[in-house]
Known about the structure:
Elements: H1 8-13, H2 19-32, E1 38-41, E2 44-47, H3 49-58, E3 64-66
Parallel strand pairs: 1-3
Antiparallel strand pairs: 1-2
Amino acid sequence: MYGLRTNPKFQEIIPPLSAEEYKNLRESIIAEGCRDAIIVWDGVIVDGHNRFQICNELNISLKTLEKTF
Length: 69
């Protein structure tokens, strides 16, 4: 949807959300939209994998913030 890619190495660094945390995040995004930008580096998601997945599934718009490392 946004032309962003994931990198398994980045995803492995961040501990996965519990089922309850994921449910709460999903409910929050449904109610309030995606409040925090997805952090990307050269088109690769660095932070915000869960938010990106939820927004993609629900077709909810999101913001990105490009970082240079």
